């Protein structure tokens, strides 16, 4: 096996990097792939919480880099998906505890053992971001349909290009179909026109993401969630499958569709 | 990328570290002195011009200086931490060349010949006449500064900036900040296929883009009575 390293990043904070990492990891593992999720946010770790593995941390990333434990000892196996592992970040240190070359070495050690290594990048463009993209084969940029998030995504894509990490791929998270319909939200086409990168996912805003995050169970394992389905589709596209984008406009029940038909007929 | 733009060090530091644009990226030349002396100056230089150098590929010319493998290893790391790439180290010392090779770095670049260097020096005196062609999209955070004219084939996204001594021509959408005639040239113009900059400056005048109605069209902005005026390109009218 020679695992591929996917770094999930965004520039702006709070757009859903950690949620995306946890869900892509869970989705890939659910497809039978062996996945290691790596939390790059040293000092502000979250991935362990979102994955519901917080209470099982013994060793972390910095312990591995500084030689206090072996790599295997820091890998926490997920309780639901046996092929999903997490290497948590240290909470009591900061980003300068490791360097980009440490990350490259660590990932090279992991590659033979798994199919995918997912790195959750911290917000920002400083050391933590540099650490996270140093070993990346694929960079996935998460953004929201709002001007500030798109601006930061543009900056990040430029930095990724400068690092010669190939063209970044884009996931637009938290799309509110209702607002898009009314024309109150930045449209996907406008975002793509500006960023000019390959779109690999459109994830609708979904309350089930919040509840599942708080509970520590990735939303992809919830068969009913639209966001969960969207993240599964992203994972399949990263695997190389051709998956059509789901129609976010659709749904909302028969009644809504009926009102929309009447409204569009009237105007 | 940026081709043939010449950036020389300023003041005291310039004597020890010089950075110059070459076809393969940037050429950093170290002056006289020991490594212990030059090393911090080099790093300071890289930090100071971080914005400009961003993501650049560096070739380092150390002259007759002897660099130990450990020094070289540390330097490679320090440079990559700054988001730059060191790809070549040129040295007159065979020992340094060997350690360079052991790091998988090049020891030679196709240097511009003596004659061409001289030609650059001549041009440097009249920099404002030199134009550079940039064939990519400038994304948010990137900054392009050039004493002469700037031609971009690609977009200028919001958050990116161009500061040119002469004219700025953009074959694409111009949505970032652009300053033409930055050294006071009031004859400078800005043209773009879609001229919607966040802010447009020509010499000392500043203008904002009014909200556009309808389809974008090629436009040229220039100063008329110290006011920035943008006019659509009209094939029937003669200009300039």
What does this structure look like?
The complex is a heterodimer of chains A (267) and B (240). Chain A has 267 residues and is of the alpha/beta class. Chain A has a single domain (4-266), classed as Rossmann fold (3-Layer(aba) Sandwich). Chain A is 42% helix and 16% strand. Chain A has 12 helices and 8 strands. Chain A has an 8-stranded mixed sheet, with helices on both faces. In chain A, a hairpin with a 6-residue loop joins strand 3 and strand 4. Residues 1-11 and 111-125 of chain B have low confidence and may be disordered. In chain B, the strands form 3 sheets. A 6-stranded mixed sheet of chain B has the order 5-7-9-11-14-15, with no helix packed on it. In chain B, strands 6-8-10-12-13 form a 5-stranded mixed sheet, with no helix packed on it. Chain B is 24% helix and 32% strand. Chain B has helices at residues 11-16, 35-48, 50-53, 69-81, 94-102, 114-125, and strands at 17-22, 25-30, 57-61, 85-90, 131-134, 143-146, 149-153, 161-164, 168-174, 177-180, 190-195, 199-202, 205-207, 219-224, 227-232. Chain B has 6 helices and 15 strands. With 240 residues, chain B is of the alpha/beta class. The two termini of chain B are 29 Å apart. The chains are: A alpha/beta (267), B alpha/beta (240). The A-B interface holds A 99-101, 125, 127, 130, 134, 151-152, 154-155, 157-159, 161-164, 194, 196 and B 54-55, 77, 80-81, 83, 85, 137-142, 155, 157-159, 175.
